[in-house]
Description:
Number of helices of chain B: 5
CATH superfamily of the largest domain in chain A: Aldehyde oxidase/xanthine dehydrogenase, molybdopterin binding domain
Radius of gyration of chain B: 15 Å
Distance between the termini of chain B: 39 Å
Distance between the termini of chain A: 57 Å
Low-confidence stretches of chain A: 1-18, 24-50
Oligomer: heterodimer
Low-confidence stretches of chain B: none
Number of helices of chain A: 19
Helix content of chain B: 25-40%
Largest sheet of chain A: 7 strands, mixed
Shape of chain A: globular
Mean pLDDT of chain A: 92
Largest interface: A-B, 63 and 59 residues
CATH class of the largest domain in chain B: Alpha Beta
Strand order of the largest sheet of chain B: 2-1-5-3-4
Largest sheet of chain B: 5 strands, mixed
Order of helices and strands of chain B: EEHEEEHHHH
CATH superfamily of the largest domain in chain B: Beta-grasp domain
Strand content of chain A: 15-25%
Strand content of chain B: 15-25%
Radius of gyration of chain A: 28 Å
CATH topology of the largest domain in chain A: Aldehyde Oxidoreductase, domain 4
CATH class of the largest domain in chain A: Alpha Beta
Mean pLDDT of chain B: 95
Number of domains of chain A: 3
Structural class of chain A: alpha+beta
Number of strands of chain A: 31
Structural class of chain B: alpha+beta
Amino acid sequence: MSASMDRREFLKLTLCGAGLTIAVGTDGILKIASAEAQQAATAANVFHPNAFLEITPDNVVRVLSPKSELGQGTYTALAMIVADELEADWKQIRVEAAPARDEYKDPEFGMQLTGGSRGVTNFYDSFRNAGAAAKQMLVEAAANDWKVPEGECVASVGTVKHTKSGRSLTYGQLCVEAAKLPLPQKVTLKKENEFRFIGTSVPRLDVPDKVKGAGMFGIDTFVPDMLYAVVARPPAVGAKTVSMNKEAAEKIPRVKNVVTISSGMAVCADDIGAAWKGRDALDIKWDKGTHPDLDTARLENLFLKQLENKGAIARNDGNVESALKKASTKISGEYALPFLAHVTMEPMNCTAHVQKDRCDVWVPTQFQTAALEVSMKETGLKMDQVHIHTTYLGGGFGRRAEVKVVEEAVHISKAVGRPVKLLGTREEDIATDFFRPGSCSRIEGGLDEQGRLIAWSHKIAVPSIVEQWFPSMIKNGIDFTAVESISDMEYVIPNLRVEQVLVSTPLRVGFWRSVGHSSNAFPVECFMDELAHAAGMDPLAFRLNLLKDKPRATRVLQTVAEASGWGKPLPQGHGHGIAMVPSYGSWVAHVAEVSVQDSGIIKVERMVSAVDCGPYVHPNNIVAQLEGGIIMGLSAALKEKVQFNDGSVKSSNFDDYELLTMSECPKIEVHIVKSSDKRGGIGEVGVPPTAPAVANAVFNATGTRLRRLPLPLAK
Amino acid sequence: MLAMIRVKVNGKDYEADVDPGLPLLWLLREHLNLVGTKFGCGQGLCGVCTVHMDGEAVRSCQVAVGEVQDKAITTIEGIPDNHPLKIAWIEEQVPQCGYCQPGQIMQAAALVAKIPNPSEENIAEELDGILCRCGTYPRIKQAILRAARMGAKP
């Protein structure tokens, strides 16, 4: 297959002395530049250097990942795509985080941001082109060296071979000569049946180091002469200091500086123990803050009250009111979800070194563009003077899309004139988190005489994520994340109305793995179950009836039903529940099997899942992401709830914000539906159907409908 | 209140001038540069800081350095790369973000030292509460069972 460059991509070659650098860009032309021309072009802003791949004489192929590795396997998947077209030897592949530069921005987002399960989908074509172009140039370099036609040379496993004479040269041996060649105007891509890596489960590149304890996370950064910085933060929302003892803190041995920052008081010391002692010695008295009445019960009442208000209409098909009047069966339900914290296992941290003409930042971040911008703002330095070094992330889930910790570390380093490692505790992580918003949904549904679903009226009260993060993305009063999985639901319902009331609270809310889908799937898929029972139908059959022209949704439902033995008798006290949610371009259905003891407590026995994410790169990683998504979904369904009290976040650590543990984890089976449809994401899609599948299974086992998360759990 | 503390970690002797009340976790990580041992909660609630003290799994955030002077400490760096658990962890492709895995492996090593052929129930009981936010529990179980088949006893 020959790919012309009409996909608004170009390939660019840079001479870097050490070897070959290939870059793929987005302006529609294949280009080549010498080092000087590249610099001139960069200076003239004609095009941006955009290197995704380097080959050096030591025979190493270095892939620069524009996406952060937070456990979702993106380093390996992107490297596989390059390596396949390049015909590389997997052993010569290394992956590094790309620097924070425009050329690494996600073409869809216009930002260098890891989110939305878009790593593979948004870089698939670019990475194939980069690998294919580099391979062609290496072949050409070999052919030139041997003075033979290119057609007699074959690239295979990191080597170009001349079949007739048996000669061969490694990519490392060829890279310097290849770098002098013009970039191909056209690249030839492999056929799918020629893939060696794509579609296989090669061992993940990050796994060996992570098993050794040698994977370098942000918290593992050391810079010579660095200080440790810890921050005393207001305990209540908007609290201000009443008094403090700065001198006492400064007297603690090894404490070097006490710095006022926007989020509190930073104490810097030669070692971490001294920094914490200094923070204690500050003995800050805080006032009660701006919302001393804030507590969990009040928040929940606020949502219920807000449901009485008129909201913005996100979708209005047909005429819901008259359809509900005509309906022969009408039911309604009110669903409530709590606020959730991310609690990445690696607490928030950032190391910064601000110098007169340079700023280095080592940070586990999902959002390089924002990290860069906030560092430039804090230091007054130019983009090319600021260097963001993305480490491994000890969990992301959206939490590390925030760069407040970068702002703080850079500010402190600048103030004290030394490198600082800013280290947050678990308590600070939870207290300063932006939460998955709590929400409340009121739904009415109507069935006709044949039990067909003819009307769905859905009103949701929820704080707006988009309003706080990207306010310009609010369209007609609608925050798309607040209604996702509702207004875009897959089911075909002739009369569908979705109304959204944005609730104002003093709390920060934000992106939490699968965002609106993760919460809205619960009311939607549970209420669908309620309607199926009202219609006297099997929940699977009821759903399939509403998905007549939706083959991908139908396939995952049928696959999961078959794999789970849907409809077969279960042991006494057991029940099963089904849920199907498309998100991020992929379709996922789960069946949960639960047992409920006489005391009413729930144990999840088994989760079976089917996923259609289109043509996939790394099947074992798809299974891993589904397993992880299901476990995170179970944790949210069964245990997690942020508590508030006296105007502050009361939850503080894993004793009062509990996560699912190994003994509570059921057996999980994941089935990948083979599909040649459009490619979708995988990192987030396992979460949404989890909670509704479990709640539906509880209903199946007990006849009790649970409409509030978290559900009670067996101990 | 600083004192010269002597500790034996992974068979090597170290000295550090620290507060004897400092948790062992921070001595290992920030003074001895053995950063494989991770900080997760500081309260003994998540287990990602698990190390061995005279062969017993302990939460290093809950042990003061003053208490470890005569003890043999083993961290993830002290488990050889050819240890069946580490091999099995790679073969099962356990880690996602990877942050909790040193703690999981250290607790697993303590388990197989006591019970060379653990059941799934033994594993769930021993590793319960070593938290993994990515959800690698099923693979951790499989890796321990695989290591046991290889003969995991160190």
